Amino acid sequence: MKVFLYPGQGAQYPGMGTDFYNNSDRVKELFEIATKETGIDVKELLFNGTAEDLKKTDNTQVAITLVNLASTIMLEEKGIKPNGVAGFSLGEYAALATAGVVSINDVFKLVKKRGDIMQSVCEGLKDSKGETGMSAILKLTPEEIEKVIDDSKIEGVYIANYNSPAQTVLSGLKSSLLEIEPLLKDAGARRVVQLQVSGPFHCPLLADAKVEFEKFLETIEFNDPIMPIYSNVTGDIIKTGTDAKKLCGEQIISPVRWIAIEEKIKETGFSIAYESGPGKVLTGLFSGLDKEFKAIPAGTIEDIQGIEE
User: Most CB contacts within 10 A, which of 180, 211, 236, 291?
Assistant: First the structure.
């Protein structure tokens, strides 16, 4: 059985998805839908936009979702279809569309609104609380990091992503992240890397974004999944459309439990994963957890043409 994995913010790069556009009429139609539903000229953004253009959260969320779904089209045109899906953070929205929970039109409405709200709230946080950010911690287990945070009593720092047993991402106030950095190194962290992001994603600092986004969610129809889809919030399979809608709000302030998702994917019986979107981050994370599990990047035409079934 095959599971498609969808990357999130940070995977973007200028020109991504343009090879899909140039090789598929269905992808061209997808670009038209994305432009119509978001008001963003996505062809211009992806063909001619700079890295700085793509870094803006309101652009990033639409662009990555578009390329994730374009990759799925190209995989399906090669005869490879998913039996289940999972998305990392923003990537969960492409998974929701593929699993039939939301329509293609609505998924672009959702990520456009989500991006706009998060961009606005992050800018407001900068004015009210100061600089915010995220840091990747390498070579400490999540449990060791949790202990450092608890023992330090430093406020405004949270675990945002449980990426792998050796890689965890923190989110919060920049001053708090800098304050806890030497404590993490003393505890054995090999490196602490400040990430180039526009806000403190997946933590309680975005509570206002959650409230505002939940109001918009009520205008969108959510259906029950037609295949297994895994929740970032719980690490488990989402059973109903009602649950999926609630979890979309919770996801904004909750950590991404990617380790739990990978374990659940294996437990479900999937034997191969395709990273349906830009980059190879999720392929690498799966290899970090289980070198025997077959995870294949599918973010370019070259990747997909090289796949041997």
Answer: 180
Q: Give the residue numbers annotated as catalytic, written as ranges.
A: 89, 202
295: left (phi over 0), alpha (psi -120 to 50) or beta: beta
Given strand 84-87, what is the order of strands in its sheet?
A: 229-230, 84-87, 2-6, 272-275, 294-297
Under the banding of pLDDT at 50, 70 and 90, the label for residue 309 is low
Q: Residue 164 has what DSSP assignment?
A: E
**Alpha-carbon span 146 to 134, nearest angstrom:** 16
Q: Among residues 77, 89, 139, 134, which one has the least CA distance to residue 114?
A: 89
Q: Give the dihedral sign, CA 241/243/246/248.
A: negative
Q: Report how far residue 204's alpha carbon sits from residue 184's, in angstroms, rounded to the nearest whole number.
A: 21
**Whole-angstrom distance, CA of residue 198 vs CA of residue 205:** 13
Minimum mean pLDDT among 178-192, 217-231, 285-299: which range?
285-299
* pTM, to two decimals: 0.95
Domains of the chain, first to last: 2-124+204-305 (3.40.366.10), 128-194 (3.30.70.250)
pLDDT of residue 298: 97
pLDDT at 291 over 90: no
CA 18/CA 46 separation, integer angstroms: 7
